[in-house]
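Hi Y.,

Following your request, here is the sequence exactly as I used it, all 635 residues.
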Amino acid sequence: MEQTAVRRNANYKRTISGIFRNRNLLILDVLFIVIAYFLVTMMIHNIYETTNIMLENAFAVLFAIIAFVCVIFVSSMYRIVWVLGGTRDYIKLIAACVIASVLSVTFNMFFYKTFYFKLSVCATAAASAMIIGMRMAVRAIHNIYAARVTAGAEQKRLMIVGAGSSAAILLKDIANNENLNYDVVCFVDDDPNKRGAIISGIRVMGTRRDIKDLAAKLNIDEILVAIPSADVNTRKEILEICNDTDCRVKTLPSVDQIIDQTEMFSKVRSVQIEDLLAREPVKLNNSGIRQYIENKTILVTGGGGSIGSELCRQIMKFNPGKLVVLDIYENNAYDLQMELNRQYPDNKPEVVIASVRDMERLEDVFGKYRPYIVFHAAAHKHVPLMEDNPGEAVKNNVFGTYNVTKCAAKYGAKRFVMISTDKAVNPTNVMGATKRICEMIVQTAQQNSKTEFVCVRFGNVLGSNGSVIPLFKRQIEEGGPVTVTDKRITRFFMTIPEAAQLVLQAASYAKGGEIFVLDMGSPVKIYDLAKNLIRLSGLKPGVDINIVECGLRPGEKLYEELLMSEEGLTQTSHNKIFIGKPIDINREELRQKLSILQKAVELDDTERIKDAVAEVVPTYVRHRGINSEAVSAVM
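Below is the corresponding structure, written out as tokens. Let me know if you'd prefer a different format.
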């Protein structure tokens, strides 16, 4: 039904355009000028004299025709498709008619006494009105017919939040595009001066507080949030209100993401979970970052992973001399290589397939490239998997980091930046504990090296490998249920680009030995995250998709932390980056404990490995006797 209506509308549009082609418009313009002069002459003189006067002054009428046609032609008015004509087009047409009228009146005043001033002015004004009115009628007829055609299709009833300039452009897009089958029912805007106002025939019927009631009362199908200039907290609050209705919610991106304001509706997108987290855009000191990256050799371990690959993308923006991507998993590394090769054909990255466990291979890589900066993102990060495979966590995270720090120092890297996690703070799982050991290794490496060793610690990133978001999306696609470990559980979140950008910024402040802590904002309840994702999929939690608690997984905390009690925070010049006060670590004592840990790994004894990890990390709290049955319920 809807496709038939669209075809009928398209066919009608072609018919209208065919009737009012340029040559036909020209003929009508000529006819209107003659009619205007005849009618005005008849009104001033009697009907019997009109014909004689018109014949006697035929050249005056001919000049008016020439003046109007030439001015309109020169103004490109005959090229416009008037069924889509806009305000600018009509302003240009009015200006062209005024110029043509002035030329006609001036000619008549000088050469034709019979056509005195009053008659000339009235005739050209009448001709102008007919010329402009005819074109307005073309558009009006088209819109009326198009509305009748689309009325036969099932239109979506649309509420627009925000009655500003963006909303006005959206209205125009909807009116001009027959593929946008929407019936705009009302506006909502918090500006009290706009309450009750009418914009292009659509009324502003309330504020954000009225969204839920209006959506139910007016049977709204979709809500479009059109406030690109609003701050993130305002957008988050409004989106949460909209998301709590039964309507599908769409939004315009923030104003910094909209390059221009043409074809605004093409920029409309579905609401994403990032929109509900109120994350302010990251502001970077680009000159400070460029200073240590531009024309330098940069090595990123784990460069094919979620964080590593985004680090590579951000690094390439600052024109490194050479980017070296090191990863053991060739598929991700290959995809990233192809992406960066397309974007930077004159500065293609080097991809090295290698494991951070393989010291000999690392020696070859560092000896060949001599990196100026090393970003160490390679690590095993899956909490439940590492709980069942602690030896692999130790070999990859702990001794892999140890290997890379040794190579960085030996081959004269200027700076070494390790990506850490909030799970390293008072860890309750093997993964977090191994990352804390990594932090200790990095801090002790600083003690007798010219290389500046630092760590950057932050929480979860949305959409990363192993993140809960992709898991929830898969479960929703499969019809549910969505599984959460505990309704009370909270986590810190930021987007992948935000994390990578802040890592680069933090690295520019490095002097050696610091643990930089990123501002993660407020913690988010995973249960609320699950509900929002279900709603964003156009479904109802508890009705279409159930949410099921399956119990905490081995080593999982209810609440994550970003600092240990011994650490204090120092503000940097960036409002989202802090420095944790370093804890004194005895380098020799750490080396001895790592030796014990190495022997435990060689024996492949899970309990002995965890005991050895606890010896290295006093704040590690082991949960004994927990099995992994809950893991299978959510993995």
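The domain at 156-271 is CATH 3.40.50.720 (Rossmann fold).

Thanks again,
Q.
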